[in-house]
Amino acid sequence: MGYKKAAKVLPVELLKVIQEYVDGEYLYIPRKEEMRKDWGSNTNIRIELKERNKEIYTDYESGDSINELSKKYYLSVKSIQRIIREEKNYD
Q1: In 10 A of CB 69, how many CB atoms?
Q2: 57: closest CA among 34, 29, 91?
Q3: Are 19 and 7 contacting, i.e. CB atoms less than 8 angstroms apart?
Q4: How far, CA to CA in Å, does 21 sit from each of 4, 15, 28, 58?
Q5: E-strand spans in 1-91?
Q6: HSE-up of residue 69 (Cα within 13 Å, Cβ side)
Q7: Tally of CB atoms within 10 A around 30
Q8: Is residue 1 scored above 70 in pLDDT?
Q9: Is residue 9 exposed (0-12), middle (13-18) or buried (19+ Cβ within 10 Å)?
Q10: Per residue in 8-34, pLDDT tens?
Q11: Considering only CA atoms, which of 45, 50, 57 is closest in space to residue 69?
Q12: 55-64 contacts: CB < 8 A, separation 24 or more?
């Protein structure tokens, strides 16, 4: 997300109307619906998390406790439980 000076990109009339609502404040303008990207679409994070979750489930099936997995992967016990539940349902 980049910042642009409103005075440089908006017509003066529109800028005056916006100032009636947010004078001197930051304003976030969301992307058009058709221009939105899914979370993680620009990186490999989804693939990495999927692989990590499979690894967690494999470790769990191999006998590691939820507390051990929580410490090993730096995740909360609830997160480990959720991952195990989701991986069980995926199988």
Answers
A1: 21
A2: 91
A3: no
A4: 18, 10, 13, 54
A5: none
A6: 24
A7: 7
A8: no
A9: exposed
A10: 999 999 999 999 999 888 888 888 888
A11: 57
A12: 56/80, 56/83, 56/84, 56/87, 57/83, 57/84, 57/87, 57/88, 60/84
- Measured from the Cβ of residue 21, the count of other Cβ atoms closer than 10 Å reads 8
Please classify residue 16 by burial: count the beta carbons closer than 10 Å to its beta carbon, then call 0-12 exposed, 13-18 middle and 19+ buried: exposed
pTM more than 0.70: no
29 vs 16, 37, 67, 80, CA distance in Å? Answer: 16, 15, 43, 36
Query: In Å, how far are 41, 58, 66, 77 from 70, measured between CA atoms?
Result: 27, 14, 6, 6
What is the rounded CA–CA span in Å between residue 91 and residue 85? 10
